[in-house]
Amino acid sequence: MTVLANEQVEQGRGWRSGALVERRELTQWFFRISSMSEELLAALDGLENWPAKVRLMQENWIGKSRGLQFSFERTDGGDPISVYTTRPDTLMGASFIGISPDHPVAKALEAENAQVAAFVAECRKGATTEEAIETAPKLGLDTGIRVRHPLDPEWELPVWIANFILMDYGTGAIFGCPAHDQRDLDFCRKYDLPVIDTFLALDNPRPVATEAFVPPKTEPVRWLDHFAGLNVATGQEAIDATIDYAEAHGWGEGVTKYRLRDWGLSRQRYWGCPIPVVHCDACGVVPERKENLPIRLPDDVSFDKPGNPLDRHPTWRDCACPKCGAPARRETDTMDTFVDSSWYFARFTAPRAQTPTVMEEAGYWMNVDQYIGGIEHAILHLLYSRFFARAMHATGHLPEKCKEPFDALFTQGMVTHEIYVTRDERDRPVYHLPEHVEWHESGARLGATGESVEVIPSAKMSKSKKNVVDPVNIISAYGADTARWFVLSDSPPERDVEWTAAGAEATHKHLARVWSLCERIAGMDANAAGEGDDELLRETHKAVHEVTMGIESFGFNVAIAKLYAFTNTLARSKAGGAAQGQAMRTLAQLMSPMTPHLAEDIWHRLGGEGLVATAPWPVADETMLTDDTVTLPIQINGKRRAEISVPRDMGKAEVEKSVLAVDAVQRALNGAAPRKVIVVPGRIVNVVM
RNA sequence: GCGGGCGUGAUGGAAUGGUAGACAUAUCAGACUUAAAAUCUGAAGGGGAUGUCCCCGUGUGGGUUCGAGUCCCACCGCCCGCACCA
To answer: Is A543 near strand B, with its CB below 7 A from some atom of it?
Structure first.
């Protein structure tokens, strides 16, 4: 048997072998991350330097909800079926009970009923992703079991097994209310179950037909025959009233649930840390002794057969029970590699220590000041790490202050590239590196064999698809400075970017221009004054300000744009050698994060002291950043029609007077008085007529 | 399907609710040159008028506002995640 990952399952078959895939239950190891659901949710508020979108995604992932849990009595006297619902207010619209194919009731039936067994087997084909489950066609099977409605013992409801109900969430059973849930409605229309409205819109009270009526919970609606006596109320008010009613009458209770599931970390694979647990016939499952940790993987394994090599290794499994010393067997499941990525940063604070961490070192180096990763890690990796840090604190491996390990988070975009594929003799995909592909008039071909290549649209670079590019070509052709500047200059780092090397040459030319500018300035009299020295000084301070702001806000492309602009300003300046030398040295400093080598050369050439790398970062003088006069655009009815130059500190009334005197404004007004004049000091004027 | 994003010239992109297209690439024109390359200068969102003016324009359709690329609603397209890719 081989265990496949979700992504290796295609249409119910293994992606390589084509063998039919079935889902089986395994006994596995879990981390109880769900015990920290509330803590992980509440602490999101404190992560001020994380992107709001990531916090929101984690909040939704944890998925705190309040709802009603109650049971339906079976008419056959079997165990009641417990359901959890966030919309108990729609209970009068129930038309069936749905249970997961993995629900205990379904399992009991499976053993004795061939039809149920076949249906459940059908549901268990294919991948287990939430996406696969939710997008699959809705399938159901009436179990024949009937339950009583809690508010009306005469009202019997059928129990259906449905493939879209997840065993992992709530109780694995729901009541279906087709009038107010689209999935339930689709299901009821398909299987001809009744649709009962429980509330109608105030403005357009029509019964539900093909589209479920699901207004926001804050919108008031009119209730039909609500048991708790509601007439017009919002969904939220109705939910609260229903929970109170159920609790008062003793047939249900309000509960808070989280969508977050425990973290299944077992992998039936070789590449992962062994789970340090021993199975003993006498003592059961026993943790390995601390002094025997870490358990190492054996080196002598083979991958020539399917399945987990640890399972068939001749001796690795054999060990002594840590408790009684009798011969025992090691656990052969290994850990999810997410386990490693959840605490590597803490290990880095004491990489050679014999213990996992050293409190003192962790206390000194942690937390991570600025964490950078792709948005694809927004949920799993970042949530697991937050959980792990708390767990490591609880077990004495990290100090209290490390519970949130990443002070600031920046989510960089992905670098994408086209994917190049050929097919082998069994029609399986074979991927090729972009550097091995040549473009001809007839399309893309392999450089080596001339074989025609299929081109798949851009996707994030990944080793498995081989759509990766090594910057070494740019570096060897133009040098590291050019490569760094080029990579940083084009796109904002948080955005996805299609990789292209076009433009690297132009970058190289620009850097060459900067160097010849430096040479020209080096030839000037370093003490001479010139025309516009003050102006250049002012521009220098502005450049310092803007470039610094750009770098600090991760706007590297904008910072580089300002460097281009400042370079152009300097190249055109008629200022003297003193001012130009000063400006050029400052330019070198501002460029140094992107082009460290060139920056040092310029610095040295123009008599800078020591190294740019060790010189203090330039600081802009606030008073140099503003000009004495400003140019204000003049809008008439919101459209730009003219502009006016006024002293920076001119009062609103005076600005208004000057604006009304402008020809274009006079012409537009045509003798009439404006209805309103809006003056935003230093920015804009809008004349409304 | 659910959750989160993104959409601006030929291209990458800029723009605290305040002059849309900064800066750059590619392109075109000019200078230099016997010529080309390199270099330098300039043009350039679309359309009309052709020297200072007008109309249109940030995926589509509505809305809020004196003013919307930016905020709100609906839709379209693309991307990320959906717990065993990591």
So the answer is: no
